[in-house]
Amino acid sequence: MDQEAPPQFYNPSRAESDVQDYWTSHGTFEATENSSLPKYYCLAMFPYPSGQLHMGHVRTYTLGDVIGRFQRLQGKNVLQPMGWDAFGLPAENAAIKHQVPPAKWTMQNIAHMKAQLQSLGFAYDWTRELATCDPDYYRWEQWFFTRMFKKGLVYKKAAWVNWDPVDQTVLANEQVIDGRGWRSDAPVERRELAQWFLKITDYAEELLDNLDRLPGWPDKIKTMQRNWIGRSEGVEITFPGVDQPGITVYTTRPDTLFGTTYLAVAPQHELAVAAAKSNPSLQLFLDECNQVKVAEAEMAQLEKKGMPTGHSARHPLTGVDVPIWVANFVLMEYGSGAVMSVPAHDQRDWEFARKYGLPIAQVIEPEAGEIDLESASFTDKGRLVNSGEFDGLNFDEARNAIATRLEALNLGSRQVNYRLRDWGVSRQRYWGCPIPIIHCDKCGPVAVPESELPVLLPTDVRFEGVASPLKSMPEWYETSCPDCGGPAVRETDTFDTFMESSWYYARFACSKHSESMLDERAKYWGSVDHYVGGEEHAILHLLYARFFHKVMRDEGLVDSDEPFEKLLMLGMVLQDGVKMSKSAGDAGDPQVLLAKFGADAVRMAMMFAAPPEQSFEWSANGVESANRWLRTRLWNPVMVHLDAINSAGITTIDKAGLTEAQKDMRRITHETLAKAEDDYGRRLTFNTVIAAVMAMMNAVQKFHDESSQGRAVVHEALNAAVLIMSPITPHICHLLWRKLNDEPLESAVWLRVDETALTRSVVNVVVQVNGKLRGQLEVAPDTSLEEIERDARALDNVVKFMHDKTVRKVINVPNKLINFVVG
RNA sequence: GCCCGGGUGGUGAAAUUGGUAGACACGCGAGACUUAAAAUCUCGUCGCCUUUGGGCGGUGCCGGUUCGACCCCGGCCCCGGGCACCA
User: Fold this and answer.
1) How far, in Å, is the CA of A262 from the C1' of nucleotide B72?
2) Beta strands, E only, A550-635
3) H-run or E-run covering A627
4) Cα separation of A367 and A14, whole Å?
5) Per residue in A607-632, pLDDT tens?
6) Which of A111, A392, A571, A582 would be A614's cystine partner, CB 3.0–4.6 Å?
7) What is the pLDDT of residue A464?
8) Complex prediction ipTM
9) Strand B within 7 Å of which CB atoms in A 671-690?
10) Alpha-carbon span A17 to A100, nearest angstrom
């Protein structure tokens, strides 16, 4: 940029750093709790400090900033904080690869990314910044966990993990590539480890029901969460054992019980494991099943395979023996790890039965028509057949009758089941929050007392291999039992990083507070009014945070039931068709564009590219044209106008004395204001805000009027343009607003729409014949149908298409359309 | 595989409640300014046909509802996100 450029030329790099200095020195965006204005907490999902900002970040934070700045213009007391989701796997990967301690690597990344965020001019209150790897943060997470522990919301059970037999370590799902460890290339094995779980299922019902009380959430996210929680009503049924303990299954189709021709258990089910001890080929099959990584997607795409266990169980109502199979598609984590298989009425069971020659017994018939069990199963509900005394009952009747019978026999019970599983929070990793538990041989697991928190994560570590250094630090894990004082060891696992992101939004209210997890300020800021983030977080993060919020509420820490009132779920910024990631490289790096065209142009290009919920492929092309528009269509016209009013002065608008052209210009200005307000506040489509301002400025360019009223009308239009654009391009608008109004932008309020300016003297009515466009009419608003019909019938082109036909119907949409239906 | 989305000109997109498909831009083409270029400005730009009035076709594909469908319904194809240890 030309350092000598006089101030009337647009120079983004100088202008933006000046404006940013102004914001910093004036503390413009530092939020306080003692405002008379209504509070507005606007939050964008905090980033993992991977080291480089990419365009996905730019999009998320710009969208959040636009919302926050718009709400500020609407007279709200806005809080927009920023922090760092600083624990996680990439820091360990970097440590292993480059021998740099995760803490150091993370802090360097934070410093770099903070500078990048600041150069984009977001209206953050940086005084509230937090990093989750800071002991001042995670000590309260540990404290909260011990509260949950004492409440009985925490328990330990064995769970399956991906085990790398060469590196002797647990692998994350993303570290397993085609069934092999990413570093060792060894085939992964499933292994059972004792893990800590949080009883999120205790809250399943509330998490589901409260979705109905979140009107500010997109329906698609609520649907995803509903499906994920997966409430179902069914019956738990016990098939008594023949030569082994009975098998308990859960089914939502008890009406098909008589069609059960075999049972299927998960490969990890105890019966399968026991049976394999004396059956080498079954053991071989189980081993094969255990060489698939621990992910539902893997499981679901496997070829369906099974093997008989050699055992059978007794049908609870018929007493007939049914064989027990092991099947690789039965999930150990869902229900009881066993299912009753009804091949006639379940397609997966049908395919399995056909493959292995198992019998298929029809017990449901359709209300009408024929079925062919040779070609497929019949899965609709219908009437029972071949079911003894239950024959003839429909689904509801049969479900009740069979459940009642099973309950009487003590072989079943009605059960509401959730697909949602408890949250396993143990990670066998170093770079995370230490789980504040001490294992004592005498007392068992004991929560670390509050006075001894935080359990500090040592930061001066070296990665010798790939395993967590904590596992080989006796000086760290050897301790004494808080209860009996005897020798004991610390838990060396750390928390799932979703723990940190489940409550950070609340901590921002009082991030520096050292006396408790949250204080009264958390109640002042309350729920996040608008939460902005990527749709990849639609389920897990949001569900865990909702769960934490409810537990915090039950502990008296917050007042509300839900953490996020309104939710904006952003589509992905794609690169080469997939979501941008840390490894994506330079194409996602905004630095070059920032230096060349400025933050305003980058922000504007990003907002203009697509509406927020839509995923799109990033292209840098728009940035240059955004810069050009700001310079030639916003900055320059304001400068020309300022010259004009400097020499000729400025007057107020005389509404009664305007020419038609001046009225038109004013109408466009106020239509644009109204549209911008609606798009910003309700529709959240900022691309169309920009388009509307562009159209308005095109009209200003064409509006040549040297009169004093003309200047006043232009003045109003330019003020509207600057104000409307200011949430998106805050730096240039800060400068232009001051030049136009001699007051700082942050004391400006949104311009009111002048309803009288919106009235039109003519409206355009479309004339159709049989739904096809045949002409147009310019008429006064609210012209009578008779008059419009008469004028429309007189149009040459309408005559052409109607002259030899009979009008059967006339459709009229007032001030918009008239349609002659002829035949 | 299962759950949730998406598919509109050469490109990004707009069309808000079923009512003029393609606003606003990018790109491209033509022109103005210039010795020239850059920058800037003006005009044109869905395809085909045309007597230049206009006509026909067109929103992933096939079918349906309706006076009228990008929009609603049924069936398919393709792309993206999530699937519990990436965050």
Assistant:
1) 44
2) 564-570, 573-575, 578-579, 616-617
3) helix A621-629
4) 77
5) 999 999 998 888 888 999 999 999 99
6) A571
7) 81
8) 0.96
9) 675, 678-679, 683, 685, 687-688, 690
10) 33
